[in-house]
Amino acid sequence: MSAPISAIREPLITGSKTYHTITEDICGPTERTPTTAWVIAFIVAVTGLSLYLFSVTWTIWVGIGSWNLNRTINWGWDITNFVWWVGIGHAGTLISAILLLFRQKWRTGVNRAAEAMTIFAVMCAGQFPLIHMGRLWLGFFIFPYPNTRGPLWVNFNSPLLWDVFAISTYFTVSLLFWYTGLVPDFATVRDRAKGLRRKIYSFISFGWTGSAKHWQRWESLSLVLAGLATPLVLSVHTIVSFDFATSVIPGWHTTIFPPYFVAGAIFSGFAMVQTLMIMTRKVLKLEDYITLEHIDSMNKVILATGSIVGVAYLTELFIAWYSGYIYEQFAFYNRVMGPYFWSYIGMMGCNVISPQIFWSKKMRRSILVTFFMSIFINIGMWFERFVIIASTLARDYLPSSWSYYSPSWVEVCLFIGTLGLFSTLYLVFMRVAPVVAVAEIKGILKTGGDQYVGPNIKHDNAHKESTHH
Amino acid sequence: MKNKSNEVWIGDAQIANDPAYLSESNQEFHSLTVVQQLEDPSQVDLNSNRRDFLKYLGFGLGAATVAASCEIPVRKAIPYVIKPDAIVPGIATYYASSFAQGGDYCSILVKTREGRPIKIEGNSLSSVSKGGTSARAQASVLSLYDTSRIASAFRVKNGQIEKPASRNKKGPGWEVIDAEIMAALNATSQIRIVSPTIQSPTTKKAIADFTIAFPNTRVVTYDAISASALIQANEACFGEAVVPNYQFQNAEVIVSFEADFLGTWVSPIEFATQYVKNRRIEDLKNPKMSKHIQVESHMSLTGSNADNRIMVKPSEQGAAILSLYNALAALAGLPSQNGPSLAAEKAKKFKTLATTLFNAKGKSLVVSGSNNVGEQTLVNAINYLLRNYGSTIDFANASLQRQGIDKSVNDLISEMKSGKVDALFFMDGANPAWDIPRAEEFATLSKKVKLKVSFSTVPNETAAICDYVTPTHHFLESWGDAQPKKGHYSLIQPTISPLFDTRQTEVSLLTWAKSAAIDAASEQPALDYLMKHWETSVFPTQSRFAIFRAFWDNCLHDGIYEAPLALTSVPSFNGDVQKAASQVRKPVQNALEISFFETVNMGGGQYANNPWLSELADPVSRTSWGNYLAVPVKWEGGNKISSLNNINPREIYGEADIVDLEVNGTKQAVTAVRQFGQLEDTVGLAIGYGRTVTGYMGKALGNNVGTNVYPWLSVDAQGNTQYYATKAKVSDPVDKEDLFACVQYHHAMGVTGKDPKSGETLNVDEKTSMTIGSGYQGGIVDRSIIYKGNLDELSELVHHVEEKRAEAAELNSKTLYPINEFVDNVYSQGHWWAMHIDLNACIGCGACSVACMAENNVPVVGKREVGRHHEMSWLRIDRYFFGEYENPNTVYQPMMCQHCDNAPCENVCPVAATPHSSEGLNQMTYNRCIGTRYCANNCPYKVRRFNWLDYTKADMFAINEPTISNESLPFGADNLTRMVLNPDVTVRSRGVIEKCSFCVQRLQEGKLTAKKEGRALQDNDVRTACQTACPTGAIVFGDRNNKSGDLSKKLDNPLNYIVLEEIGVRSSVNYTAKVINRSENLDA
Q1: A321 Cβ under 8 Å from any chain B Cβ
Q2: Which residues of chain B have a CB within 8 Å of the CB of A71?
């Protein structure tokens, strides 16, 4: 199909790629000896992971008392990290599911890595509800399993229980979706591999032959999973927001939370995708597949969701004033002026004010600016959750119980540790799986690749179009 | 045959209704005997084969392995061989006894379970304590199980008690020690028995009997916190060397100069019950309330309850008393006296005060905590002038709770210096090597005394300078008596066999005296001696009983015997007012002054090794585990003493500064706490902290907690200890306190101040609201947590409460949930528990908090954990300030689980660990709790407590048992300490949430009692631990469906409200709004 390409659209794949060069470019990193940069990154990541394992062991061994939470502020960095990580996961699903349904072709360059990020982020997120439990070893109580205690069921009124269902469903669907996409690519790797590697990839590609029937079923499954995942993008963070919105604590008890949380999640998710993509494309030399156009598009999403979040912040303040309800007013007064004012400044600065530079196209297309902005936004979104959780709890109804909280070393190490866990998983992923969806990107080569709009290239043996993929 | 197609049958015999089958199947047991069955080859095949053998072998081996590998906990329960009559396992037995420690007195009932005393309750038969208790009395049961208790008689060498090296070896034993002590004494020995106030007539008799053998024996009585000037002044004025009987209930105007009569002064339980009678607002149409004015510099517990506080510096107390005297004298037409005077502005207040007092002649009361004879004489003169003797003060039933004369201990030091003393005996509670201003001198001079013996139950500073320790029993193991007031006798009976090889002081003394008065061979010599004394001295004073045994049994049952009240007569005043006016303290200008005050928990330091008391937050400063320098909070302008301005700016972040405090040339580092109501240019520091020896090494939790202020006390010309110092110096912060154990920062509830620019009164919270980093730290005036008002605006207050409650009802009616229907269908059917707390009756003394800890096995967490806001208290007393910023009023609000009927904690728990009972209780199922802590976050009252670490030492890991002061075994891990646990209440493990249960174990017990007796439950059957502990009856618990119960009567008061009612959680605790009787003309 050589459909006319809109002149104003920039190519989605640059560098005059052929099907074979795509395979070479993307499968290459899984076949070559790791680069020094990767090895260094991996050592750092595994160090973080061991820090994580150590602090988890410490937490379970010593008790939650090894954290600095107190009788007033019963959730702090733990749940902040949980919400942060869950939020980050959202971009992957949005890119892979919603953009698939909307036929946004640019998604193919980033969807694989974004989905991987989703899965790893949800894995990191899932750690916190577990380890923050006072008695982790009885954590299975939260599952509604048949038992001889009556039977005694879980409390279906509790948003924490909804969380269990929401997060586990989300994780399962995301994992399936991701793996489904990986099957044809694993087959590609398999076909190029020898020996043990071939056997392993043969096993995990489920005997994919690339027959038309396979492709047809694969397409259908992808669509079905996309259909399933789409409502999950909205539901998961809605339910996470219920953890707060269903409470009676002023500052938490807010009906604006579901949309505001979802927008924030996508916002932070795209920021994290940017962080990862900018590094990945550089390290794996995938600049032709993850182009400035991608970065530009994602920055637009960031600008849009960031503005939604900004409006939400202002709405909260307005409603607090407008409600005439003193506790609500105080809660928001306290957010801005109270003991945690610096986190509110951090949140506003990083999430609302700084993304405004993306109105400028030049900024949107600057890799350096985008990279720093993505880090900013990740920090800002972490602050947002911290503001909601800690600063609200620190000053609730009874002034007699007001308190202040700063984390212990264990809590800090846990957060750094989950970054280690995440990076380790991502780095392993980079080594074992094609970080760009090979099959899907080939599908858009003709419509989105620049060789069909650019000058013709000379054919030689090296660039002989391969039908084998 | 009927068609039985719908039935299930097991054979044709059943279908056919075969009679043989039916008879067999109707038999419960098999018709054949076991032997017959075994003989019947069709029944069982006894020929075992190889397969069976292997099967049984396998099963047997497997079962044995499984059983052997299971960890079976070692339970140390020893059953009774012969069950004692009085003990039914699982049923508590109560014994009447008395808590008499030095001058502290409380008539008590001791709750014992399976022979162990586990809880102290008040004895309502006593007209002194009237069923009330104090925090100290509540905590006294823990000291019975103090791991530092001295196990037997020992020698002391080089400051160390010579305990045997190992458990198997024995110490010298009583006989050896007795022989050594007796050898060191002879008939001419100059023996001095050093003691705090002895309330016991029998102990005094024992000393008298001892004196027969050793005629040169003298008793040196002193109290660490003394009322010696009061006693001396009364002797001089009225010829009565006692503390008189005060009757606060008869006083309409109460003026207290530094006397903390609700917290610590002489007989606080008694005074609190009296005081509160005139503080409750029950008849709203014709409200009557006493007026209470406190004159002090540091906010004491009593001062915090006062309507007005006139703040004068410690050195101005004399001038203040004199101003009042002169103002009254002017009104009465008497000559005024010359002496130190106050600034005109303050003197004016005392003029106003004098008018108020004069108008309430005969119905007023002026008390002073001063230890200056001149000042006490002037106070006597004032009371005499106001005709209070005979109405609010009398000598007929004078108090015997303070008998110490400071001079006697100073005389003793002089005697020791001149080498006149041969032997010193220290009664339990006496600690002159630490708790007198000249303690160091005393310790040094004690080397000149040949024989020094301590009767202390636990090691202390004085025991360390002794030659022998001959420990007495704990009072819960003793026979004894107390006479807190003339005509009031109170018995002490043992509730457990002595835990250690200890011997009562009386027995020791009489043994050494080889007295015939005691039969050492008797099984209970102390009991015999006590009975003999009562038979001869107490029994004849009554006529109700003809036989002593009947009298004795009755007294022992009741715990008390009260002789008919002596008639009060008005004494004549012989005091020399002119001389008194010249004796009073002289004001010091332009210097920082410090007052040293007693706290409700620590006393003079004798309670330092009691972790329940150490953990109890001070009612006013809300700090625990130490004494903190109270520094004034200045709003605008700053302090004249500029170094005070920069102290503790970051208190709301839990950060406190350590400053160097210099008094009389010696410096100590102390941690500061900002204190509302602390007079500018003054600071305050509590007495009783900084003990260095409170127990054995590695077991003493009270060692080096806080700062010792005794070396800073001075002695005046009359030999009386002075609890203040002038010319103190406070440095700029020198360090940061890492362990600032403050459970509530100084948030106030709507304090007002004057705007420096406009001079208008404005709300401080609003003023400070623009401070970035702190927000408004005052909370919001409109919060429906505390409703308060002045007596003269009572109708406004009623209206305000009504309005707010109507508003809340309106908001709560907007609900989707049919909560009212639920209430009608569920709660109205059986019991519906509720509580009522009268904020006007609550004085904040903390007895309920300690009672709650004792009743519910609430763990002690130590300073570090309290500093991290990990305190576990189920019941806390919130303190809020309101009114004028510089000189606010205080309201105390006991806060525990409110047992909301629409509880926010319940619906957020993912595992349903906190459900609601049909009786309106919010229950906590510890076994089900996984510790997500959402319930605690969602609790608007923040009363849920999480076991952050293994505070109860019940966990499988040893690493997470926090020690309190690096003790060798964590507090509570010792089997001895664990004896205090209430077996009815689960000990919670790490990682679960806990909270007030409305003493559900007591509710169950009460319900069972009523059921067994076949009657409806009365409110009296169920009384929570906090309710029974409260000296003022501020807490009433009951069934709100019982319309004739105690609670229902309380619920009608229009001043009642529910905290945070508008959020619709439907709390079960009602509070009565706080009313104060403040006079503006005393403010100015």
Answers
A1: no
A2: 869-871, 936, 942, 944-946
Q: Per the CB < 8 Å rule, is A334 touching B870?
A: no
Dihedral over Cα of B671, B677, B679, B681: its sign: positive
Check if the beta carbon of residue B823 is closer than 8 Å to that of residue B1029. Answer: no
Q: Does A72 touch chain B (CB under 8 A)?
A: yes
Residue B573 has pLDDT above 70, yes or no: yes
Among chain A residues, the shortest Cα distance to B782 is held by A326
Contact with chain B for residue A399, Cβ under 8 A: yes
Nearest to B775 among A71, A249, A337 (CB): A337
Q: What DSSP assignment string belongs to B432-493?
A: TTTSSTTHHHHHHHGGG-SEEEE--SS--TTGGGSSEE-PPPPGGG--EEEEEETTEEEEE-
On whether any CB of chain B is under 8 Å from the CB of A165, the answer is no
Mean pLDDT lowest among A91-95, B609-613, B691-695, B764-768: B764-768
Does the CB of A64 have a partner CB in chain B at under 8 Å?
yes
Looking at chain A, the whole-number percentage of residues with pLDDT higher than 70 is 93
Tokens of B52: 């069976």
Taking the model in full, what pTM does it have?
0.89
CA-based radius of gyration for chain B: 33
Name the residue in chain B with its Cα closest to that of A407: B868
C-alpha B774: how far from its chain's center? 34
**Each residue's pLDDT tens digit, A16-66:** 777 788 888 888 888 888 888 899 999 999 999 999 999 999 999 889 999
Q: Are strands B217-221 and B191-195 parallel, antiparallel or unpaired?
A: parallel
- For residue B958, give how far its alpha carbon lies from the nearest alpha carbon of chain A (Å): 9
* pLDDT for B44: 52
Contacts across the A-B interface (CB distance below 8 Å)? 203
Cβ(B846)–Cβ(B135) below 8 Å: yes
A68 CB neighbours in chain B (<8 A) are 868
CA distance to B556, B1007, B1045, B1048, per residue, from B1021 (Å): 23, 7, 11, 15
Encoded amino acid at B167, one letter: R
Nearest chain A Cα distance for residue B825, angstroms:
22
A residues 429..448 contacting B (CB < 8 A): none
Domain boundaries, chain A: 19-144+155-458
Reduced to 3 states, what is the DSSP secondary structure of residue B160? strand
CATH 3.40.50.1450 fits A19-144+155-458, yes or no: no
Q: What is the ipTM of this complex?
A: 0.91
The whole-number pLDDT of residue B385 equals 93
Give the long-range contacts of residues A166-169, CB within 8 A, separation 24 or more.
A166/A232, A166/A235, A166/A236, A166/A239, A166/A240, A167/A86, A167/A122, A167/A125, A167/A126, A167/A129, A167/A236, A169/A232
d(CA B1039, CA A375): 59
pLDDT of residue B1074: 94
pLDDT, one tens digit per residue, over A363-404 is 999 999 999 999 999 999 999 999 999 999 998 899 899 999
- Look at A63 and B950 and tell me if their CB atoms are within 8 Å: yes
**B881 vs B755, more confident:** B881
pLDDT exceeds cutoff 50 at A468: no
pLDDT score of A469: 45
Other C-beta atoms closer than 10 Å to the C-beta of B54 total 10
- Taking the C-alpha atoms of residue A385 and residue B1022, their distance in angstroms, rounded to an integer, is 46
Asked if A158 lies within 8 A of B940 by C-beta distance, the reply is: no
CA distance B888 to B902: 35
Nearest to B454 by CA among B430, B420, B480, B422: B430
Whether B53 shows a pLDDT value over 70: the answer reads yes
B822: distance to nearest CA of chain A, Å?
17
CA proximity to B315, closest of B722, B629, B733: B722
